[in-house]
Amino acid sequence: MTPNDLPEIFRDHNPLEDKMLQVIDNEGNIISGELMPQLDDNTIIDAYQKMLYERTADEMAISFQRQGRMYTYTPNLGQEAIHIAAGMNIRKEDWLVPAFREMGTLLAKGVTMKEMFLFYNGNEHGSSFQNAHHVLPIAISIGTQLQHATGIGYSVKYRKKDETVFTFIGDGGTSEGDFSEALNFAGVWQVPVIFTVQNNQYAISVPVKAQTNSVNLAVKSVAFGIPGIKVDGNDFFAMYLAYQTASEYARSGRGAVLIEALTYRLGAHTTSDDPTKYRKKEEEELWGLTDPLVRLKRYMERSGIWQIDEETLKDTYRQEIEQQFLDAEKSKTYPLDDVFAYMYTDMPDELRRQKAEYEQFLSWKETRE
Amino acid sequence: MSAMTMVKAINSALDIKLKEDKNIVIYGEDVGVEGGVFRVTEGLQKKYGAERVFDTPLAESAIVGTALGMAVSGLRPIVELQFEGFTFPAFNQILSNVARMQNRSRGRYGAPLVIRFPYGGGVNALEHHSDSPEALFAHIPGLKVVIPSTPHDAKGMMIAAIESNDPVIFMEPKRIYRAIKQEVSDEKFTIPLGKARVVQEGSDVTVVAFGAMIRECQKAIVMAEESGISVELIDLRSIYPIDRETIRNSVRKTGRMIVVAEAHQSFSVGSELIAIANEEAFLYLEAPPKRVMGYDTVVPLAQGEKYYIISPDRIFYEIEKSVHF
User: Fold this and answer.
1) What percent of chain A is modeled with pLDDT above 90?
2) B227 — phi, psi (to 5°)?
3) Which overall architecture, per CATH, does domain B197-323 show?
4) Are strands A202-203 and A206-207 parallel, antiparallel or unpaired?
């Protein structure tokens, strides 16, 4: 990789110098006009609406969980700009290899809220993503998914397909061996994979400072010989530009890219987590000022393109999301077959025997009741 | 004596040993500031300092690999892996090094460390949070693998595990972390590893279980007693080394054995116990020993878990079948 092969924004934002790509500030003022991606007003309005949709869906999911209508859930609050910017740059033929906090990107690929609700309601059918093309299920064992992304990258290259792989991990996940191994392979193989580290400052309770002695997480790309860039993850335009550039780079056959998206998990790690145990309110408030929705809205107001009746829109979203939740609740059937049917393509006799044995118990139970 | 949950009892064991032995360190993901996601290490960092109780980067292999380094150089580390489903990045270190260092170095370097983690189902969890991988660990020569079923046992077994000069895999049944309260001594006491406990004596059938399944068996035994069946319940406590003698004596007495466990049944602890029953009590058997265990499938997510989890009436059904064989 010679410096000339690097896109300009990567050269200008060298992670070794801890530079960060940023287009607008917290007030929505443009700070780097030359970096502003060329987007028409409708696209910006669309982006905001998608972020608002994700925020609304997320708030509702948390509330369903609190009402006891859903099991453990992993909120996305505060990280929407990353998800929507990725979602707007990912094409139908591109691959999405998620971790578990990328709702907006999953939705962009055609995953439905009904499926998300089914999954968090404890039904594996919520991972089958019926209408989404090239999306792997949510990955819970941390970091493992990056290797799958690199493998898909190899497959894409081998099959000479115009497909890019988008994959995600958190700041904590970068400490796993799987992270380094996946990036190393991607470097050696020069495969079209865009690795995003969503640095939301915490791995459950452990702050990123206790996670690495590196100056930032983008710098980890240097050791593997792939371009890396640190981006303000709460700045929609910066994230959009990063994905646009990374996609062009990957599609041109030059290989993988690492994007560190600097953000903040405004909510809990999961609905079982209590962040007051390990972080201060003042810190949360400070990061609250960088809220990606507020920033984009301020930019839109300043540019005179704000024309959204937010409350009405949110109400529409709420009704639509509620309907998907109700649909998920209604389809809450789980036949015994589902436990066994998908384990093997060719079910072993031993599994048939185990299932039959359980069915005998069920009939005994019925005669007793 | 204090009323303790299992969480509190393990915390008490760790507290006593930290106080007693300055070579003990405790670490893992979220164990320091947060006190563990289940609060097992709560308050210990505050009490003993961040040099002895601390958070690590998110890397299970490094957590276990560094623990071995500490153990061969004079410390006695106790590490937490957050869930059973996240032990596998560390599996290479456990299998290839932790379990073998003592033998490899002809006793020159031991591995006095404890690897503890919550395991088991019945808590409506996401994937990788409901598994029972005890057989995977028990199959590795060089490890002790233990599982408590009560707060009292948890405390005594944890202290014994920490004092063991061999590496111990200490599996904590998360489903009963807070479900049972029991009067437990505040003082130091140990329960020797490798010894099963006869929870209740009986004459018709032996039921062997461990962890969260003991409580389910006790519910089934109430049903069995109503049907006039006398059940002997054994809490295995130690998966490896396994208490062959207690199994032998019981099965020779009752002539029947049922093993109740959450794990997948093939190649399991249940398989091992049935082998022992055959080797030790073959001519005493009046019914085929039976595994009442999970299927050879992934533990289903919450909606399907009802099919997988072993219920008291399922245990009773198998007890009855065995007695009327």
Assistant:
1) 96
2) -95, 10
3) 3-Layer(aba) Sandwich (3.40)
4) antiparallel
Structure tokens at B42: 């709560």
**pLDDT score, position A331:** 84
Q: Which residues contact B189 (CB under 8 A, 6 or more apart)?
A: B155, B156, B159
Mean per-residue pLDDT for A56-68? Answer: 97
* Burial state string for B12-42 with b = 16 or more CB within 10 A and e = fewer than 16: bbbbbbbeeeeebbbbbbbbbbbbbbbbbbb
- Mean pLDDT for all residues in chain A: 96
Q: How many domains does chain A have?
A: 2
Residues A244 and A355 in one domain: no
CA distance A247 to chain B (A): 29
Domains B2-184 and B197-323 share a fold: yes
Contacts of B73 (CB under 8 A, 6+ apart): none
Residues A213 and A74 reside in one and the same domain: yes
pLDDT at A2: 53
Question: Could B124 and A332 be called an inter-chain contact, meaning their C-beta atoms sit closer than 8 Å?
Answer: no
Q: What is the pLDDT of residue A4?
A: 56
What is the residue range of A88's domain?
3-334
Under DSSP, is residue A214 helix (H, G, I), strand (E, B) or coil? coil
Option in B56, B60, B307 nearest A339 (CB): B307
DSSP track, B241-310: S--HHHHHHHHHHHS-EEEEEEEESTTSHHHHHHHHHHHHHGGG-SS--EEEEE-SSPPP-GGGHHHHSP
Say if residue A360 is in the same domain as residue A293. no
Q: Is the ipTM of this complex over 0.85?
A: yes
- How far is the alpha carbon of B206 from chain A, nearest alpha carbon, in Å? 20
Q: Is A278 a catalytic residue?
A: yes
pLDDT digit string, tens, across residues A230-259: 999 999 999 999 999 999 999 999 999 999
Q: What is the CATH number of the domain that holds A68?
A: 3.40.50.970
CA distance A325 to A120: 11
* Per-residue pLDDT tens over the stretch A329-366: 998 789 999 999 999 999 999 999 999 999 999 999 99
| Cβ atoms of B184 and B155 closer than 8 Å | yes
Name the token pair of A326: 């109700």
pLDDT in tens, B118-163: 999 999 999 999 999 999 999 999 999 999 999 999 999 999 999 9
How, if at all, do strands A20-21 and A228-232 pair? parallel
Q: Answer yes or no: do A314 and A359 share one domain.
A: no
Average pLDDT over residues B101-129: 96
Q: Is B90 helix (H, G, I), strand (E, B) or coil?
A: helix
Q: Please tell me which residue in A120, A265, A295, A299 is annotated as part of the active site.
A: A265
Q: Quote helix, strand, coil % in chain B, to nearest 5.
A: 40, 20, 40
Measured distance CA(B132)–CA(B294) in Å, rounded: 9
Say if residue A146 is in the same domain as residue A108.
yes
CATH fold for domain B2-184: Rossmann fold (3.40.50)
Domain boundaries, chain B: 2-184, 197-323
Which residues in chain B touch residue A142, judged by CB atoms under 8 angstroms apart? 58, 86
CB contact under 8 A, B296 and A354: yes
pLDDT of residue A369: 76
Q: What is the per-residue pLDDT across A260-317, written as a single tens digit (0 to 9) for each?
A: 999 999 999 999 999 999 999 999 999 999 999 999 999 999 999 999 999 999 999 9
